[in-house]
Write a structure and sequence with these properties.
Structural class of chain A: alpha/beta
Helix content of chain B: over 70%
Number of domains of chain A: 2
Largest sheet of chain B: none
Low-confidence stretches of chain A: none
Mean pLDDT of chain A: 91
CATH superfamily of chain B: MetI-like
Oligomer: heterodimer
Distance between the termini of chain B: 35 Å
CATH topology of the largest domain in chain A: D-Maltodextrin-Binding Protein, domain 2
Number of strands of chain A: 13
Largest sheet of chain A: 6 strands, mixed
Strand content of chain B: under 5%
Low-confidence stretches of chain B: none
Largest interface: A-B, 26 and 22 residues
Number of helices of chain A: 17
Number of strands of chain B: 0
Radius of gyration of chain B: 23 Å
Number of helices of chain B: 13
Shape of chain B: globular
Shape of chain A: globular
Order of helices and strands of chain A: HEHEHEHEEEEHHEHHEHEHEEHHHHHEHH
Order of helices and strands of chain B: HHHHHHHHHHHHH
CATH class of the largest domain in chain A: Alpha Beta
CATH topology of chain B: MetI-like fold
Mean pLDDT of chain B: 91
Helix content of chain A: 40-55%
Radius of gyration of chain A: 24 Å
Structural class of chain B: mainly alpha
Chain lengths: 409, 289
């Protein structure tokens, strides 16, 4: 009896000891779609099997309140060890010392991944690029054929896009050349910025950081965008535009890889193509257009007590193999890993290949903790031009003045 | 005596604790926050005195959201009240299928606001049923749809809100109508009073307490309009309201809790003033109740 008690005592002691040495990581992430959530869960399981001393607690966030939930958690000191952040949010969290600087830990991986600049604030890296996101031009080939734009017509410049959109609009009632976003917050500017950047406009000067959103190229871009909107636009929210495009009512729309997923999942038989964002001028041998780029990053809480384990997990999830698994399951077209990008899966599919190519011709917004305000000012300018007939120059000048005032504070 | 008192405290303590923790404390704390520059992600904050309130009064977005809120309140409350009363009078009569009509009118008010907002978003879109209806009566609908036009977006949301709310207030009016003694109408009929006279001399005066209740409740609810705006327009096309402004400033973007708290207190003062005004006006007409 005494021996049994002693054995039991030591067994409990050993169990307690092993529980104490086990690290539990908390990870908050946004991928809840049934096509991808099981893959995420299986990756976590594999990591735990390979690292028996580390357990990972997975928490799902939603896009509707995820940002708010993360901010509240960090502010109250109860943030997770690892959190997925959108590129637009990183500067805000980094500037307030909420994220761990991982620069020394990723020095050897800089060449393998795209997107580091979006996670770099004050010359320090605060997030590991995971899945990036860009937009390309989709078009309905049947409408192009009906508009007599055959013989290998490619919308590679604004003039091409303009001509084709007008000719498609002229096809008749309920057919539109261009899908134009309504005043949707956080979306409208993403549709305008490709034109803004393609015209050579910038938000700030390279040196000095002066706001130049009302430069001549920016005004030109907004004037062209307004022309497409007024003459050829089917105006709706992003979902509405995509619905109309899939119904064969719209010639051209700018969209992301989620549309490819939707087309496949819903079995649409639409005769569509994808191409890089057109440049302002015709450039047959040079790509002139620039798209919008954003992305999802895995970041580590500055207050985490398990930074080493967290970094190990982040590197596991974002490894080229796991990115490929993720992209195949989710039909995502924008892995940050260059090894994954060069995989046949992307290179043999013309539409996925377009997205991969566009990543090299895409620009991301400045990494600025005040970006939410700047974005809002830009959206107000675009909104006032599209829907209240304000002059592009005056609207962008107002935006510039407001952004400058904000920066002075 | 002390035992029943302590038992009473013990039994009500869950509610008292919940009240203090989740209602009273946030209310007082947000008043304090309104005088600071507290941002959720920024460590520490400063006392800024009345600066947030001064800034609010010169913030065009806040002024615009207040203007929209007043349009919403002043536009929906009278219409909702009159239609609710009319419906209550209608379904108070004896006719076949009366219960069905009562249920049908009441149904929207127990349906999820988000669901209704999504349905109406579809109805209001370009080529939707409302646009078709407008064309049928010879009116040109907005080119891109009712919710994508600054001239119609807010009014479209208001129309939906009226449709949704009338059933609930109809039921309250109906309860008020049932409480009026039949003898009064019998006496009026014997005296030769017409139906119109009976309505203005009996029904309306005796429904005044109910009407005041409806006005105050509807007023508070209308000042707090948020879900409809959030779902249908996201505050664009000149539809941002005071609560939507507070949500945007405090819980999105830069998480300016201090600034949003100040805006919440401005709204609180406005609702209190508006409710007090309604009490005074109704009391002046009827004397003390």
């Amino acid at each position: 009896m005494r021996i049994a008690t002693t054995v039991l005592f030591f067994a409990v002691l050993v169990l307690a000891q092993s529980a104490a040495s086990e690290t539990t990581l908390t990870w908050w992430q946004f991928w809840t779609d049934p096509t991808i959530r099981p893959v995420i869960a299986s990756m976590v399981e594999e990591f735990e099997q390979a690292n028996p001393d580390i357990k990972v607690e997975l928490t799902d966030l939603t896009w509707s309140n995820g940002h708010e939930k993360i901010a509240i958690a960090f502010a109250s000191g109860s943030g997770p060890d690892i959190v997925e952040l959108g590129s637009d949010w990183i500067a805000q969290f980094a500037a307030n010392n909420r994220l761990a600087d991982i620069s020394p830990d990723v020095a050897e991986e800089l060449k393998e991944y795209d997107g580091w600049s979006m996670a770099t604030y004050d010359d320090k890296i605060y997030g590991q690029p995971w899945i990036l996101g860009t937009r390309v031009l989709f078009w309905n080939q049947d409408l192009l054929d009906r508009a007599d734009l055959r013989d290998g017509f490619l919308p590679i410049s604004w003039a091409h896009l303009d001509t084709a959109s007008h000719r498609i609009t002229d096809l008749g009632r309920d057919i539109y050349g261009w899908g134009s976003n309504t005043a949707e917050k956080h979306r409208l500017y993403k549709k305008f910025m490709p034109f803004f950047w393609s015209a050579g406009a910038r938000v700030y000067t390279d040196s000095g950081g002066f706001c130049i959103v009302s430069s001549e190229p920016a005004v030109r871009a907004l004037r062209f965008y307004k022309r497409l909107h007024d003459d050829c636009g089917y105006v709706a929210n992003q979902r509405g535009i995509e619905d109309a495009f899939l119904d064969g009512k719209i010639g051209f729309i700018i969209s992301g890889d989620w549309l490819l997923k939707r087309i496949e999942q819903e079995g649409h038989s639409l005769n569509f193509r994808t191409i890089l964002i057109p440049g302002e001028t015709q450039t047959e041998f040079k790509i002139g257009g620039r798209s919008f780029m954003g992305g999802e990053f895995l970041t580590i809480n500055a207050a985490s007590e398990n930074k080493e384990a967290a970094l190990k997990f982040v590197k596991f999830i974002t490894s080229p193999e796991n990115q490929l698994r993720f992209c195949k399951a989710n039909k995502s077209a924008n892995p940050s890993s260059k090894t994954a990008q060069s995989n046949d899966y992307f290179q043999n599919d013309p539409n996925l290949k377009t997205f991969i190519a566009q990543l090299n011709h895409a620009v991301h917004p400045p990494v600025d903790p005040d970006w939410v305000f700047i974005e809002s000012e830009l959206e107000k300018a675009v909104e006032s031009v599209l829907f209240e007939n304000a002059g592009p120059g005056a609207a962008l000048l107002d935006a510039r003045i407001n952004i400058a005032k904000l920066k002075e504070k | 005596m002390s035992q029943p008192r302590s038992t009473g405290f013990l039994l009500t303590s869950p509610w008292i604790l919940t009240f203090l923790l989740f209602w009273a404390f946030p209310v007082v704390y947000s008043l304090y926050m309104g005088f600071t520059d507290y941002r959720l992600l920024v460590e520490g904050y400063r006392w800024v005195g009345w600066e947030n309130y001064r800034q609010l009064l010169s913030d065009p977005d806040f002024i615009s959201s207040l203007k929209n809120t007043f349009i919403f309140v002043l536009g929906t409350i009278p219409v909702t009240t009159v239609i609710a009363l009319a419906l209550a009078l209608l379904v108070n009569r004896q006719f076949k299928g009366r219960s069905l009509f009562r249920s049908a009118f009441f149904l929207p008010s127990i349906t999820s606001m988000v669901v209704i907002a999504l349905i109406f978003t579809s109805l209001y879109q370009r080529g939707g049923y409302v646009a078709l209806l407008a064309e049928m009566v010879g009116q040109d609908p907005p080119v891109h749809g009712f919710l994508y036009d600054s001239g119609t977006a807010l009014y479209s949301i208001m129309a939906m809100d009226v449709w949704m709310a009338v059933g609930y207030y109809m039921l309250i009016f109906l309860a008020g109508l049932k409480a009026i003694p039949d003898e009064l109408y019998e006496a009026a009929e014997i005296s030769g009073a017409s139906s119109t006279r009976q309505f203005f001399s009996i029904t309306l005066p005796l429904l005044r307490p109910v009407a005041l209740f409806i006005l105050v409740i509807n007023c508070i609810k209308s000042f707090q309009v948020f879900v409809e705006v959030f779902v249908m327009t996201g505050g664009t096309f000149d539809t941002s309201t005071a609560v939507f402004f507070i949500f945007q400033e405090g819980l999105t973007g830069a998480f300016q809790i201090g600034y949003a708290s100040a805006a919440a207190y401005v709204l609180f003062v406005l609702i209190a003033a508006f409710s007090a005004l309604q009490f005074v006006l109704m009391r002046r007409r009827t004397g003390a109740w």
